[in-house]
């Protein structure tokens, strides 16, 4: 009798434990610092969305010391040790918003605490130094300067986003406003956040003084922060959940890498990889570290190929983690007129082509001799990427895919050259004023048709090929159809313009 | 000993109750009326999809009397009391399809019951009178008349959706068919559903007589129903689940508010809010009333900002529910040539501009003096909306965002004015026939280029700015790129047309 | 006392069994063949993604003999019996990659086993013969030949996807490369996979010899396989999960049926059906066979209307399963200049129009007299499809929908005829060289404008109408707006070209 009762009790104890185990674990949530507790005390009322978001995050439920106890493959922090001051409390408001106060021009006295408004990659480096260092050398970190310091790109930006007036029937460009620059190109590239003293704002708590920030808000990857650092981790790990799940899902990259100019997201959606992702993602594990191919996911997202640590189910490393998002790439497909080897460093403003312009190729496609990675480095990176493909594809499948991509790149570059030749003809016949006249090469209709060829159509086809296929992007949707059609329009434009110039002269 | 056994039994009873509690609750599903039971008896066989859909709904699992027992914040009905006839049965087929039979021209004798084919907002008002009343004053409710009663908009509709013939090499417009009008503009705006007696239809149950409806099916928000009421609740709460979850998810609004003319959905998808929604929505609670920021969701959907009742986790109201979807808005960004204050009433056909046309601005952007809300009302609404933003954003972040939006609206309106000036030049030079000739201002190529400027490109940029950013929509995808490029095309078109008119004259 | 204890023990045993029942079932996974075990032994290390994907599949967890035990409605195999050699092991690597080795030109000795690289529909027919036979007669199976054997379509393909050079200011077409053909049109239509002996590849296991495949990789639905069979089941059931869930979700069809030329996916997304799908799909059952309307899903996906076996909740068949995806269709809306009855057979290269061209209509829209289904067959299919609509819609709703569709098809075809008349005028005036000059009818600007009318805009409107509405696709997004605008551009182009030809002649 007693044994039965004992058995009953044991089972009774095991069943709820198994079922409610995870809930039980939450009961032993590690301590919150007194400063963070004070933040939450008010902000729970005044910015409840932030507080609730954070409370669901891993940051709110673990301490740096606990994070260090994981095996090296499973670890999410890259620091080896932590100061006692941060090691044993959860990563809360104060832990992130109070680092390096003297470097932070946006530091201010807030209810008795010295608070930074903007958290920067240097702050995150307290726990994630390797990620911060990798990121700091990437093109993403330099996205602001790569645009503003390059006169060619700057001219393109201003031509596009400026208000135009009509004077005597002519379209006249006026200077672009900072505001519009910041919600177009620099929404992704980042702004330079500046501090202009303090200003009084009228809040639900009454009037308080805060640092007056200009070029803010902004979450561009190349943002220049008030502590001088480059980048915004929140661009991909938003907004107080700092979630690895969000960063690994393709919607995050999709905010900037989308059609018509960088159609990575659009091509992904229409690829076989995307098809499997959308059909099955709800059964996958986006939080596992390391991320196990086949076990945690059955088709790659952006992060799989471009930055995550990927292993087999039994922890064999297939590819290492990187936060330099170009580090696995051998060729640069997008954003510029012709394809070329990846830049050596994220700061691309130092590259010079044969004509002395800060571009990786000449106007007719000749590749710059310095500043770009070598053929050997290209081969090495290609091999690393192929190793990842082979997790799911045979060697021949993978090899053939890369051969096809190489042919596509060559053909698209040839199509761009054809468009360039038509543009040159227009310039030589004075149908449009451009480079050879020392004038803006981006503001005439035929110049804009030429931009479409490489920036929209060429990019779409190259992405479609690189990402194993989005047939409509390669064909009808900003693809070969458009390359072909638009080239004919350029030719017709020249004919019509010659006619009207001729008739005007008469 | 006995105590152990008692404990065991208590736990044994608690565990399954906890686990199967919800299932257990379903066991006490409230009663179905005899009429609805009769409907289901047949329709389970003949339209099984509808019946199954309804059976999963809240309507099928609650009674009005039960609904009234909730606290005022949690309540989903806005009536204070119910007739005994409806209070204690679930909201079934007969309860909705039998209201006000004498007003319903679509009422018919169906198997011995007097049934309305079309359920209208007045019918829904039995339980949801506040929502119905709010909706009835909105632009949505008046979407049909706002288009049909306005000769300018009517002319635009007909120009677009009519078949064109070629006569002597010229494009000649023929009258637009009702059928095509109904599956284009009026699919969203709604049709006027008319009853033309009874007709015999051949069903799986044999031949039966039903009201002969024209302009049907339609689920446009501004539908005119056979009982004279305006609107279709099923536009957003489809189709027998009447789900709050569906209405709160952005796909619902996306059916009509999408690119190129109303790109709210497209901009949302590419915004930070959208990024977080798509990455995390499966963990959110879309059924909770009230809807708690941070707790139930961590980023807004359309409904959050435009109509839901939002509270903090501890039930502090942040913003009240409204079913007048313009009620929180201070400025009207889309659908018309220039931005302007929101109309006072949903029926916008009464507005007149200085030129006497039923439009909120003149051809060059001057705002009408009557029919639009005051500056004070604008400020008040802006403040209400900012209060919601501040659930997750600081005061400075929010303020700066609104300043940026204001600048964008001004710049876009200036770009529209530039396009208008080119259009006027074309008209003055008789290159196209338009307003100044008393002719259709929408059918020439340059007129259609002009429409693109404000209806597609301007709207995209303004939405992108208003919804905190979809950089590609502001830049390359129907954004500044297209505004700029198309303005140049307008200028070139004038040049080419002058040339060909000149050469024809010679 | 004892009775209480007994009761406790019974409940204790029942609770875990109920909860962990499914896990318990997995414990009795059926046996893997020794050959498949050998495959997995190595491939678990070398292609872990494939192995893990398969292990989650139904194939890995059931045997053909077990599959036969299901009732006929629930059965997923269509073979009546199986050889002893396959009946009692799970469907593993070897079971699929070793069938008909002598027919398979891609068979090779791989680590002592005779392995086929490419699995074909004939191989799948071992268990799924009815599906393979239905598919083999479909347009999908013949998608490769329908393009390559038809000189009109071939010419269109080559015009679009070939590199163009500029010679003396003229755009000159060069031959299209196989590589680019394969990642554009033939990515969906399929390639002819050829075996060119063996080649050595350098793998993680060292150098091994494999069949050298050209035109590979490819997963187009009309792929010609090394065993001579047509098609790729993996096009819709990818890639080693062979999942019915993936095939039923719309992302799968979306890889090829998307805008601008085949905008089925895009229209679906913006339709009421799509709205409900995206809002609720996570609660639906995509694995149930048969698929029960209302119970398993509350709005259709592509598969619902076009190929799945659909029943009521109590197993009444509403529509039978088919893998001939055109079998339920009465009219062909897309891909060709004018609408016409569905072809009788999937091989459409045999159809001839009155002018002797292999097309279902003449240049001005007259329908071919042979090769297309009869009016009676059209009515029969329409009735079958309407039967499915009536699962959720009334007879009148359904009938009115079909009437509206018919009107739309007629109007769009009339708009196409108008564009054709303008194209003829251009040809007759020698502004472009086309059919009447024996020249390429697809390479001039006005010819490409004409293609846009039917291939992009007409298709969008017809799809939007057919799939119960995506108002913006019918109106502004490749819809009536674009049909109207582009027709005007064709007219202007003719005017400008006449002017410039005139001025050149002078």
Description:
Three copies of one chain form a homotrimer. Chain A is mainly α and 506 residues long. Chain A has helices spanning 2-26, 34-46, 48-55, 64-68, 84-87, 93-97, 121-124, 129-136, 143-148, 151-161, 178-183, 185-189, 244-248, 250-254, 264-269, 272-280, 302-306, 375-389, 395-428, 445-466, 471-474, 480-505, and strands at residues 107-110, 113-116, 164-167, 170-173, 194-203, 206-214, 291-292, 310-311, 317-319, 331-332, 340-341. The first copy, chain A, has 22 helices and eleven strands. In chain A, a hairpin with a 2-residue loop joins β3 and β4 (170-173). Chain A folds into two domains: 137-235, no CATH class; 240-505, Hydroxylamine Oxidoreductase, Chain A, domain 2. In chain A, α2 (34-46) packs across α3 (48-55), α19 (395-428) runs antiparallel to α20 (445-466) and α19 packs parallel to α22 (480-505). Chain A has a three-stranded mixed sheet with strand order 7-8-9, with helices on one face. The first copy, chain A, has a two-stranded antiparallel sheet with strand order 1-2. A two-stranded antiparallel ribbon of chain A has the order 3-4. Chains A and B meet through α1, α2, α3, α10 and β3 of A and α1, α16, α19, α21 and α22 of B.
Task: Based on the model shown, name its key terms.
homotrimer; 506 residues; mainly alpha; 2 domains; three-stranded mixed β-sheet; two-stranded antiparallel ribbon; 22 helices; 11 strands
What is the strand and helix layout of this fold?
Three copies of one chain form a homotrimer.
Chain A: H1 2-26, H2 34-46, H3 48-55, H4 64-68, H5 84-87, H6 93-97, E1 107-110, E2 113-116, H7 121-124, H8 129-136, H9 143-148, H10 151-161, E3 164-167, E4 170-173, H11 178-183, H12 185-189, E5 194-203, E6 206-214, H13 244-248, H14 250-254, H15 264-269, H16 272-280, E7 291-292, H17 302-306, E8 310-311, E9 317-319, E10 331-332, E11 340-341, H18 375-389, H19 395-428, H20 445-466, H21 471-474, H22 480-505
Parallel strand pairs in A: 7-8
Antiparallel strand pairs in A: 1-2, 3-4, 5-6, 8-9, 10-11
Helix pairs in contact in A: 2-3, 19-20, 19-22, 20-22
